[in-house]
Design goal:
This is HupE/UreJ family protein. It comes from Comamonas squillarum. Keywords: Membrane, Signal, Transmembrane, Transmembrane helix. InterPro entries: HupE_UreJ (IPR007038). 75% of the residues lie in helices and 0% in strands. By secondary structure, the chain is mainly α. Helix 3 packs antiparallel against helix 4. It is globular and about 45 Å long.
Length: 202
């Protein structure tokens, strides 16, 4: 598959995100005891639900379209995602996780659709706030029963999330900068998903 076809496939997948299943199905704790098994499960976890995947792709695409340098907001997202996951692993109750995740999908989708520009410091701060709540949800779902398993889960989740950011940045650079309607379509679809999530929680 050449680069253009790969990018088009990613864009199609991003636009179809509202048709995907949600990731939050409850705690997974204790089912993955080794480093490698925890790593593999956590690596796949960000790809298993539309909410996490949409937010991470949106951060990457929005950063590629509007933030300079583009890597800082995704980096902040991964860092605060890990911080939130550590809180979840520790059993810390974080209020408003599900509404904040839904709000992040809505807001980030709108930012992609309108291609809102802001200084990288503000973009990184916004991405980081949302990421903490995503991380807390991940941490609760992936809570492990050993330090080694927890380390594997953190590493896998961070890598999987970073790859989604890179995918979003590829979409932004390769397609959305050239075809602005794709940004509006993918961002609008992501925002609709976030609105539907908020409605479901109401």
């Amino acid at each position: 598959m050449n680069f253009k076809k790969f990018s088009a496939a990613l864009a199609t997948a991003a636009a179809a995100l509202p048709l995907s299943a949600m990731a939050h199905v409850g705690a997974d704790g204790g089912g993955h005891h080794g480093f490698l098994s925890s790593f593999g499960h956590a690596f796949a976890h960000p790809f298993t639900g539309a909410d996490h995947m949409a937010a991470m792709l949106a951060v990457g695409a929005w950063s590629a379209l509007t933030v300079t340098p583009a890597w800082r907001a995704p980096a902040a997202f991964v860092a605060l995602l890990v911080a939130g996951a550590l809180a979840g692993f520790a059993g810390l109750w974080v209020p408003g996780v599900e509404p904040m995740i839904a709000a992040s999908v809505l807001v980030l989708g709108l930012l992609v659709a309108v291609q809102k520009q802001m200084p990288w410091v503000l973009a990184a701060a916004l991405a980081g706030v949302f990421a903490f709540f995503h991380g807390a949800a991940h941490g609760f779902e992936l809570a492990a029963d050993s330090a080694l398993a927890s380390a594997g889960a953190l590493a896998g989740m961070a890598l999987g999330s970073a790859l989604l950011h890179v995918g979003g940045m590829v979409l932004g650079k390769a397609l959305m900068q050239r075809h602005r309607w794709l940004a509006k379509l993918a961002g609008g679809a992501t925002a609709v998903l976030g609105a539907a999530m908020l409605t479901r929680l109401a």
